[in-house]
UniProtKB/TrEMBL annotation:
It comes from the Archaea. Keywords: Cell membrane, Membrane, Transmembrane, Transmembrane helix, Transport. GO terms for molecular function: sodium:proton antiporter activity. One of its GO terms (cellular component) is plasma membrane. It is found in: Cell membrane. This is pH regulation protein F. The chain crosses the membrane at residues 6-22, 34-55, 61-83. InterPro entries: MrpF/PhaF-like. The lineage of its organism: Archaea, Methanobacteriati, Methanobacteriota, Thermococci, Thermococcales.
Amino acid sequence: MIESVVKLIVPIFSLAIVMYLVRAVKGPTIPDIVLAIDCIGYDLAAFMGILSLYFKSPYLISGAIVLALWSYLLDIYVSRYLLREVRV
């Protein structure tokens, strides 16, 4: 069951990451670029979670949690930076 799910998910996540990379490089505004990088981080964390189930490895899920928290901290940092820029 999990093998068929992984075979289905790998191309979907790969296509999504390529589209996010295009948006991150081509994005006209800073929020577009930040959102694309944020989506890459969360998608990679979800993909690592799925792979940890497939490989039965608890180390991958701990890496996925760290990556998701890092993406969340990036959101907070950039939002505070953008709010500071708007106030000035």
